[in-house]
Amino acid sequence: MTATPRPSSALHTLTAPEARDLLVRREISSTELTRACLERIQQVDPQLHAFVTVTPELALEQAALADRALADANGDAGKTPELTGIPVGLKDLFCTEGVQTTSGSKILLGFEPPYDATVVARLRATGAVFVGKLNMDEFAMGSSTENSGLSELLHGTTRNPWNLEHVPGGSSGGSAAAVAAGECLLALGTDTGGSIRQPAALCGVVGLKPTYGRVSRFGVVAFASSLDQVGPFSVGVEGTAMILRAIAGQDPLDSTTAPERVPDYRAQLAGGIRGLRVGVPKEYFVEGTEPDVTARVRDAIAKLEELGAEVGECSLPHTDYGLATYYIIAPAEVSSNLARYNGTRYGLSATDVPDVFGAMDEARRRGFGDEVKRRIMLGTYALSSGYYDAFYLKAQKVRTLIKQDFDQAFERFDVLVAPTSPTTAFKLGEKVADPMAMYLSDVCTIPVNVAGLPGISLPCGFDAKGLPVGVQLIGKAFDEATLLRAAFTYEQATTFHTERPSL
Ligand code: GLN
Question: 8-266+276-324+392-498 — its CATH code?
Answer without folding.
Answer: 3.90.1300.10
